[in-house]
Write a structure and sequence with these properties.
Layout lengths: L3 E4 L10 H8 L3 E3 L10 H14 L5 E6 H12 L6 E7 L26 E5 L8 H11 L2 E4 L16 H10 L1
Parallel strand pairs: 1-2, 1-3, 3-4, 4-5, 5-6
Helix pairs in contact: 2-3
Length: 174
């Protein structure tokens, strides 16, 4: 069975968030523990992700949300461990002028091909990543792009407890 590593974003994912539900329901699924969810530091998050990947029982699938997507992309730019693929759900654009200070350390966003298959899934009305910007990043990373339509931030606040479409995307990477 392929290990699945959940990489939540800024402030973590609460109990009703689809990532938390997947962690509870899917076998071989675990959350990457970050040093600080409310004061993220890119180097620390990337190191925590590297440690989790090294400890996995085989090349894992990575599932990122928001800032967690950028932790994955920064990790890929600096490390060479085997990864089976990544689902990058609703990445946050840390290069925007109005982004919160704690998230700015994740800029600039790495460019270039990811060394594993990836799917970038984005909402057309996400307040933290415009759809066109998400398409551009998917193209630069050579990730498949999925326009999810108007579904907000893909979090509990936008009505996403269970995320069936995301489970289907994860299955594509398996």
């Amino acid at each position: 069975m392929t290990p699945i590593l959940i990489v939540p974003g800024y402030l973590n994912a609460g109990p009703g968030h689809w990532q938390s539900l997947w962690e509870e329901a899917l076998p071989d699924c675990s959350r990457v523990p970050m040093p600080s969810w409310d004061r993220p530091v890119r180097a620390q998050w990337v190191e925590a992700l590297d440690e989790a990947i090294a400890a996995a029982q085989g090349p894992p699938l990575l599932v990122g949300h928001g800032l967690g997507c950028l932790a994955i992309v920064h990790w890929a730019a600096d490390h060479e461990r085997a990864v089976r693929g990544a689902l990058l759900a609703a990445p946050v654009d840390v290069e925007r002028a109005d982004i919160s200070e704690p998230q700015r350390s994740f800029g600039p966003i790495p460019r270039g091909t990811l060394p594993f298959p990836a799917i970038l899934a984005a909402s057309s009305d996400d307040p933290w990543m415009g759809l066109q910007r998400a398409r551009e990043l998917a193209r630069e990373w050579e990730a498949d792009f999925v326009d999810l339509g108007p579904c907000g931030r893909l979090d509990w606040g936008s009505g996403h407890g269970p995320w069936v479409r995301g489970e289907a995307l994860l299955s594509e990477l398996r």
